[in-house]
Each structure stands twice: as structure tokens, then as C-alpha cells.
Amino acid sequence: MRALTPVDHVYPIMTPHSDKHPETKGASHAPKGLPPKVKIDVNHVILVLSGKGGVGKSTVSVNLAYALAAHGRMVGLLDLDIHGPNIPKMLGIENQRPAVLEKTMEPVHVTGTLAVMSMAFLLPDTSSPVIWRGPMKMAVIQQFLSDVNWGALDYLIVDLPPGTGDEALSIIQLAPNVQGAIIVTTPQDVAVLDAVKAVKFIEKLDLPVIGIIENMSGMVCPHCGDTIDLFGRGGGEKAARELGVPFLGSIPIDPAMVKAGDEGRPYILRHADTPAWKAVDAVMENLVKRVES
Ligand code: ADP
Predict the structure, then answer these.
(1) Is residue 119 part of a domain?
(2) How far is ligand 1, taken at its centre, from the CA of residue 251, in Å?
(3) What range does the domain containing 125 cover?
(4) Ligand 1 atom with the shortest distance to the CA of 55
(5) Average of per-residue pLDDT across 215-220
(6) Nearest-angstrom CA–CA distance, 126 and 189
């Protein structure tokens, strides 16, 4: 077993013209023309989606995955934001590389119960744009499922790029046990409008919307404890009510969350009992209730 280096690119990423997948042995049969579901041992695949960028989707994915792992679940975190894979940076593992063993890869283990795979691990240079067409993305997503030693997972949290693109369609097609999607929004009207589109996109694909999360929902003043409505509050909850989908909770702004993300230490690891920590924990509990009951 050896570690991947950024330059050697040894892992055989499929091209749109490759007609054979190395691991099709792991895939189940499907009607001709449709790629088969990949066989991986996971109970709940949860997609995390947003209508637009910058609303805290990746921050929510990281903290939710961490919270679930801290509650004894075996968790995989799959960063499919191929054009902006930030999860490794947020977890302080951006310099690590998955070990390669013949045709499989070992995900990067953050704790005993949390393993991560990201496009960032395979790119020689994350500051260069990835310019890929849909079929190529699908090939890579297929490999992220079938060729990674995920082990037995309770949850696979999938951080998708913002919007309604190929990555979401591919993972829905390829992954087993997709329970549905969580939509992250901020409270402002412009963000909520895009979140509504994301909800409708998921519903069109006949998948359940597990719930909306309103992030950056007010800010608790560290001095007086009052809440300041920086971007307003309640837009996500109102949209959930109007669309008839569950609301999983609101997470307030906490400047420490920006710092934690930049420094690569998950926020919930260090800020127990703050309003934002309690909010993330409550969202995680709501998610578990919806998915496991
Ligand atoms: P997205 O994945 O939607 O593009 P990110 O997760 O990258 O968004 O978050 C964008 C920025 O907002 C990051 O700097 C992150 O640390 C910050 N952020 C996210 N949620 C919060 C929050 N609740 N409080 C403070 N900062 C936040």
C-alpha cells in the first residue's frame, strides 16, 4: 500500500471513452443503457444540497458528519463538489492522500468512525479548475463508490455542488439506499428562492426531501446574548412550511465557525454548548429521527 502523491495521479480515473469499468464486478445488474447501482454496504445515503453557493452547505455537511460519527455511527463523507472540493481543508486533511491498494483506495480516516473521500485528494492542484463533461463526472463518482474501501457504513453524507447538476443525478442513479436530500439555505429571499428550486429538483427525481436547514439564521451577540438578524430569520422555515417539506432546524452565525473551517478543525469538536453547537446537534438529532425511525 502506498500514498498517492499529487503529481503521480496513479489512480486510473475513467474517461468518457473508457468502455469498461474496472470494478463492474461490484455492481448489480441494471437494464441496458442505465448504469447499475453500485454495491456498497451503507444504510443511509444522505445528499446535502443547496440552491446557491456560500450558504454553508459544506460546513453543514462536515459538522453533521462529525456529529453523527461522535454519536457512534459509522460515517463516510463524500465530497462531490468537484469544482470546489473544500471538505479536506475544513477537516485539516488537505495534505493527506488516500492509500492505493491495487485497484482500490482507502478513504482518509479522520476518526475511527469518520472516513472521507474527495476529488481534492486526486487533483494535482486544487487551485486549477476542473473542466469535465457529465459522463466523466459520472465515471469518477462511480469509482468513488465502488473502488473506495468504505467498509460498513451507517451513513454516507454526500456534499454536492450547489445547484441542480450532473453530480446529483449521477449519485442518485449509482448509490444504493439514497434516503433523500437535505437542502441548506440562508434566510434571505434570494437564497430561499434558489432553495425552493433545489427542493423541486429533488421532488422531480422522486426522492424525499429529508428537510430544509436554515443556516446563518441570526447571530447571537457574544457580549449581550441578544440575537442580531444579520440576514434575517425564518425564511427557510417558512419555505419548508409552504412546500410541505420538513424543517430540520436553524443554525445561527458564529464567527468561530469561519475560523474553525479555515483552520481545519470541525466547529462542533470544540464549541460544545454554544448556541450554534446546540443547533447543529439538534439538526443531527432531527435527521436521525427522520431517517432511522
Ligand atoms: P457552501 O458550501 O454553501 O459554498 P461553505 O460551507 O463553504 O458554503 O461556507 C461559506 C463560508 O461561510 C465559510 O467561510 C464558512 O466557514 C462560513 N459559515 C458557514 N456557516 C456558518 C455559520 N453558521 N456561522 C458563521 N460562518 C458560517
Answers:
(1) yes
(2) 11
(3) 35-292
(4) 3
(5) 92
(6) 32
The one-letter amino acid code at 210 reads I
Does residue 2 lie in a domain region?
no
Judged by DSSP in three states, 282 sits in helix
Q: Whose CA is nearest to atom 23 of ligand 1?
A: 253
Domain membership flag for residue 244: yes
The number of the ligand 1 atom at minimal distance from the alpha carbon of 217 is: 23
State the total domains in the chain. Answer: 1
Cα-to-centroid distance, 245 and ligand 1 (Å): 23
Decide: 53 in ligand 1 pocket, CB within 6 A.
yes
Helix (H) or strand (E) holding 181: strand 178-185
> What 3-state DSSP class applies to 119?
helix
Contact 271, 256 (CB under 8 A): yes
Whether residue 93 has its Cβ less than 6 Å from ligand 1: no
Ligand 1 atom nearest to 61, measured from its CA: 6
CA of 57 to the centre of ligand 1 (A): 7
pLDDT in tens, 67-91: 999 999 999 999 998 878 899 999 9
List Cβ neighbours of 253 (8 Å cut-off, separation of 6 or more): 216, 217, 218, 219, 230, 231, 276
Distance 170 CA to ligand 1 centre (A): 25
Q: Ligand 1 centre and the CA of 261: distance in Å?
A: 8
The CATH number that applies at residue 188 is 3.40.50.300
Instruction: Report yes or no: 204 and 248 within 8 Å, Cβ to Cβ.
Output: no
Tens of pLDDT along 111-156?
999 999 998 898 777 677 777 777 788 889 999 999 999 999 999 9
